[in-house]
């Protein structure tokens, strides 16, 4: 099932998207429930939605404004740095990696987070934040959506805790990332986490490692990779994070970006106002965001 959060008047609604239409399922949910509550109660709600959704009125998908599937996550988006080999190399050569281990593959996953207020919709404008950065970059990524929470989740159990998948663009202010020698600030500016367009349930995806990700800027392909190229795979990421942190329903884990980001070029190719950045993943749709 492909779920969406969309705007209707002044309220946001939960819908099910299917073949160019969206069906508003908000009336079937507890009053005020959003996507987080849907994920939390999925064991009961999932089968019910599956049964009755097709009978609901259908709106053309392109007639509604899609928001991020989880517009306000309950906490920061967990993120993974340097998780594709070729990206480790380009980041190392760029001069922006202040870790002191520029050329080495990480021995363990590098984890950081993006503030909840960085999340924005799949077609929303990205703010350039000229007052604080002049080096804006993109990072197309597969994002996991946790269903059943837990601590001490093993590799073997990991996929049982994945509710579904979406796409994020881990937009990055490279000068802040470099100068502050940590990643939170450079990764967390408002609107710097476009997300969506769908929250796709895991049962829709036969083999997530076979999915292909592609990022374009103004139509020019910059990134292309397959999820199986991750250095630390999905079970490893969940096992590492949950070893001492309780994962919660609706938690988001952005799995890392492949080679081809702006600082991978010499000279770097930063984003400027008017640029259109698009990130697509097989079966998950496409983010399409313009720099304001
Ligand atoms: Mg990233």
> How many helices does DSSP assign?
6
State the separation between the terminal residues, measured CA to CA.
Answer: 32 Å
Largest sheet, described in full? 12 strands, mixed
Strand fraction band? 25-35%
Mean pLDDT figure: 96
What low-confidence regions span 5 or more consecutive residues with pLDDT below 50? none
CATH topology term of the largest domain: Fumarylacetoacetate hydrolase, domain 2
The domain count comes to 2
> What small molecules does the structure contain?
magnesium ion
Broad structural category: alpha+beta
Which geometry do the CA atoms define? globular
User: Would you count the extended β strands for me?
Assistant: 18
Run of helices and strands: EEEHHEEEHEEEEEEHHEEEHEEE
Instruction: Label the CATH architecture of the largest domain.
Output: Alpha-Beta Complex
Helix fraction by DSSP (H/I, runs of at least 4): 10-25%
User: CATH superfamily assignment of the largest domain?
Assistant: Fumarylacetoacetase-like, C-terminal domain
